[in-house]
Design brief:
Blueprint lengths: L1 H26 L45 E5 L1 H5 L2 H11 L4 E7 L26 H11 L2 E7 L4 H6 L6 E2 L2 E2 L14 H17 L3 E5 L28 H20 L5 E7 L15 H5 L4 E5 L19 H16 L7 E2 L2 E3 L17 H13 L5 E4 L16
Length: 407
């Protein structure tokens, strides 16, 4: 009834206005122009209002709430570990220690996505059922307030390379693979950028608070193959740049693109990077420039595992056996570099909780235990770096470590 009355009133007003206008038009016949007076009677409360610059963008809300910890101290989980009974054991471990975060594979090293996408999705064939219910995993982490980070492996992608050979590197007409049988997709191809960033967006929708991109690079040793392999340079076939600069430009611009695309999802963006990239101007083969990447991310995670440095690096005869000294030397170098940036990212290095048996002859392995893990953390803290991530591919972490020695 109330709605009908409102409609009748609106109709009556329109008729009245029309009559007024018609009357005015009739009176204009004697060349006397009269002003319609009803305009000044209906005034609004509009006024000038200063808008923010820039205008805020739409932000996706997953419905989950996580607080950023005092400092992120996290462990790595495969999709398998996150999707089976090991998750609860690792949650218990985190809760019993000063740890507070988990990095979970969403797209792993072979290019497979850790949970199943719908059949109509272009990602269906690349998706596996490692986590049958990723939403439940995120909700469980929300209950415990364990900070969730999604790891997305980008350019090392054997699955996609064989599905889309034109997006990869070829040798003698076949997809090129390294000595481990791994294939890479081409960082020069922007379709590859979009493919990975769209997967990252889906992780953000699930509720992950940060997207961590790994293998943001060309294959190791690419400088010896760049003129041998068959591949497209896309928009980066620039005669003014040498091959190294082309690769650095492509890798850096991918990171900037990913950061911009993910902004509406309210997530932080981080990149894993080789530790040695901080010790040279730019890594010639893989296309990583530490400062350029750091300038485009919220978090930089250098992989500084002592086992991954050659003998004599930082004048340390055997870095794997001197974890404190190795991390201490690296941290000093990184701090100097990041100080050059006006608004640098948070430093959150990857440290080692595994034994690198391949470095030693049979029977002479240097075993990593609580002391070696503690040495790395202590070295970071001594250099004012309070965030870190711990890597063990088997997701088995050492007992008896003080993960927050500041307390």
């Amino acid at each position: 009834m109330r709605r009908s009355f409102a409609l009748l009133l609106a109709l009556w007003l329109c008729i009245g206005i029309a009559h007024s206008v018609l009357a005015d038009e009739a009176e204009e016949s004697d060349e006397t122009i009269k002003t319609v007076s009803f305009h000044h009677e209906f005034q609004t409360n509009l006024g000038e209002k200063e808008l923010p610059d820039p205008l805020p963008r739409y932000t996706y809300n997953s419905g989950l709430n996580f607080e950023y910890p005092d400092a992120v101290r996290g462990i790595y989980l495969t999709g398998h570990s996150a999707g089976n009974s090991r998750l609860e054991k690792l949650i218990d471990y985190v809760n019993e220690t000063e740890l507070n975060a988990m990095v979970i594979d969403i797209k792993e090293d072979n290019g497979y996505i850790s949970y199943k996408f719908p059949e109509e999705s272009p990602y269906y064939d690349a998706s596996k059922n490692f986590m049958s219910d990723p939403q439940a995993v995120l909700e469980r982490l929300e209950e415990e307030q364990i900070y969730p980070i999604a790891r997305v492996v980008v350019f090392k992608d054997t699955h996609l390379a064989h599905e889309k050979p034109e997006w990869s590197f070829k040798e003698n007409g076949k997809v090129w693979e390294n000595g481990k049988g791994e294939a890479f997709v081409n960082p020069f191809i922007k379709d590859v950028w979009e493919y990975n960033v769209e997967i990252a967006k889906e992780a953000a929708k699930l509720g992950f608070q940060e997207i961590q991109f790994d293998y943001v690079r060309f294959p190791e040793g690419f400088e010896t193959r760049d003129e041998i392999l068959d591949y497209s340079r896309g928009d980066y076939d620039d005669a003014s740049l040498d091959n190294v600069k082309e690769r650095v430009k492509a890798v850096t611009e991918f990171v900037a693109y990913a950061k911009e695309e993910l902004e509406p999802y309210g997530v932080d963006v981080s990149v894993d990077i080789f530790g040695y990239s901080a010790t040279i101007e730019e890594a010639p083969g893989i296309g990583q420039n530490f400062l350029q990447i750091s300038d485009n991310v919220d978090v930089i995670s250098s992989m500084i595992y002592p086992s991954h440095w050659g003998a004599g690096y930082f004048d340390i005869p055997n870095p794997d056996q001197e974890p404190y000294r190795l991390v201490d030397e690296y941290a000093k170098k990184e701090n100097e570099l990041l100080a050059q940036l006006e608004e640098g990212p948070t430093s959150r290095p990857w440290i080692q909780d595994f034994t690198a048996s391949w470095l030693y002859p049979a029977g002479k392995t240097f075993t990593y235990g609580s002391k070696q893990v503690q040495d790395q953390i202590d070295a970071l803290y001594d250099n004012g770096i309070y965030e870190y991530l711990i890597w063990d591919s088997g997701n088995s972490y050492t007992e008896g470590v003080d993960y927050d020695p500041s307390n």
